[in-house]
Design a protein that fits this description.
single chain; mainly alpha; 54% helix; elongated
Length: 200
Amino acid sequence: MFLKKNILLLFFALVVANLFGQKDTISTKNKKSDLKIKGKLKIQQGIYDPLAPSKAAFYSAIFPGMGQAYNKKYWKVPIVWGALAIPAYYYQINNSDYKRYRTAYRLRKAGLQDEFTLDDGTEVISLTTLETAQETLQENRDFSLLSGIIVYVLQILEASVNAHLLQFNTDDNLSLRPTFMADPVKFEAPTVGLKFKYTF
């Protein structure tokens, strides 16, 4: 019974609040076709371009670093290329070494001479070491590929976020100014605190 009374009271309060709420002062009788504009309509373009982040992301997806160039951050382009070149280099090195050890392992399993077996039949690297080297190089190769994909996605995100941030107001009044103030009461044992001050 108590629950029913509370629900009924809440329902009544919502209905009363809606009855005494503000009414829309704009007339709904006018239609778009009834509106007439005299003279030429001038639309001022604002600073904000909603398509800029998507363009920057698209350019970066097509060619890495192109989104950063679109944002006019030319100094970031060599950083993106270098960040993508490092995993690509290590992928190529690990992949070629993996193929070498894999070929040697297969030849040795077939009873043939491989590059790690001398002419007199002595093995420089054992069969177990060849198998372990293959596993390690395969893991390194896959890690290099994953690192390259992550860097590729991050440079797309960076271009998009940078295009968003370039359109925001960066007035000096919006800056953060950290200051250090000594506590006169506890001068011997300094304390650390954080204070935010908003000025408009």
